[in-house]
């Protein structure tokens, strides 16, 4: 309840969308 | 004991009773994941957002994604017709959704959407307002409050300037927009409570 974003799996989606982009930029 | 998912991020509120809770959740997740990715892409385009620490970028997105989606999908609520259009494209009447168990949250989202749409904002104004919604220094877990606050202030100044320029005879529009921020917080809290209820169920 304190972290609904994590409960939803939102954090995973957000991290992948952000970090995936970082990896692309490094390439 | 039929279960319904009255969130318009679904394709439909109807749930296959033969599916397990996990399968229902997986299906729902497939519906909202693209919208969440769009919010991340939007955030990345906010000037200054990518300069924030990765931790703070994630914290802002975790806390604010629901509120951004409420703003982005305000047009799904048609209070003249009293309908809600789900992402699958089908419209459902507010009364039908109420019969399926939608409660205060959907009513409050309808009220919010109607008032926001009545302001008649342009796409540019709506985008800048959405950026202000997302970049809030008082979200929990922010490491560098000063950096987020500085970006927030820059965005609010830009929003005020844009609104003042575009609505010279409507001085209350900017104030009304700022007053939408606590409304969104309240909707976010109600949504979190419903998520808890859903998970317990």
Polypeptide structure, described:
- Chain A has two helices and no strands.
- In chain A, 22% of the residues are buried.
- In chain A, 81% of the residues lie in helices and 0% in strands.
- With 201 residues, chain B is mainly α.
- Chain B has a three-stranded antiparallel sheet with strand order 1-2-3.
- The termini of chain B are close together.
- The chains are: A mainly alpha (27), B mainly alpha (201).
Per DSSP, the total helix count of chain A is 2
Q: What percent of residues of chain B are in strands?
A: under 5%
**Cα-atom radius of gyration of chain B:** 18 Å
The rounded distance between the terminal residues' Cα atoms of chain A is 38 Å
Q: Helices and strands of chain A: which structural class?
A: mainly alpha
Low-confidence stretches of chain A: none
Q: Sheet with the most strands of chain B?
A: 3 strands, antiparallel
Q: Quaternary arrangement of the chains shown?
A: heterodimer
Radius of gyration computed on alpha carbons of chain A? 12 Å
Q: Which range does the strand content of chain A fall in?
A: under 5%
- What is the number of beta strands of chain B? 3
Based on secondary structure, the structural category of chain B is mainly alpha
What are the main properties of this structure?
heterodimer; A: 27 residues; mainly alpha; rod-shaped; B: 201 residues; 7 helices; 3 strands; 63% helix; 4% strand; globular
């Amino acid at each position: 309840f304190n972290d609904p974003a994590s409960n939803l799996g939102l954090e995973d989606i957000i991290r992948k969308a952000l970090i995936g982009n970082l990896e692309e930029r490094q390439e | 004991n039929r279960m319904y998912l009255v969130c318009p991020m679904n394709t439909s509120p109807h749930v296959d009773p033969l599916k397990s809770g996990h399968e229902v959740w997986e299906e729902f997740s497939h519906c909202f994941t693209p919208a969440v990715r769009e919010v991340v892409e939007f955030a990345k385009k906010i000037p200054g957002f990518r300069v924030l620490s990765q931790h703070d970028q994630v914290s802002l997105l975790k806390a604010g994604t629901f509120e951004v989606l409420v703003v982005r999908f305000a047009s799904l609520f048609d209070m003249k017709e009293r309908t809600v259009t789900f992402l699958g494209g089908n419209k459902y009447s507010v009364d039908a959704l109420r019969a399926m168990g939608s409660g205060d949250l959907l009513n409050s989202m309808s009220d919010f959407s109607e008032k926001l749409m009545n302001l008649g904002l342009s796409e540019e104004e709506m985008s800048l307002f959405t950026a202000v919604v997302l970049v809030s220094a008082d979200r929990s877990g922010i490491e560098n409050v000063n950096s987020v606050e500085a970006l927030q202030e820059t965005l609010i100044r830009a929003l005020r300037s844009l609104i003042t320029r575009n609505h010279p005879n409507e001085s209350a529009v900017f104030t009304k927009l700022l007053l939408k921020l606590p409304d969104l917080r309240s909707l976010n809290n109600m949504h979190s409570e419903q998520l808890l209820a859903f998970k317990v169920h």
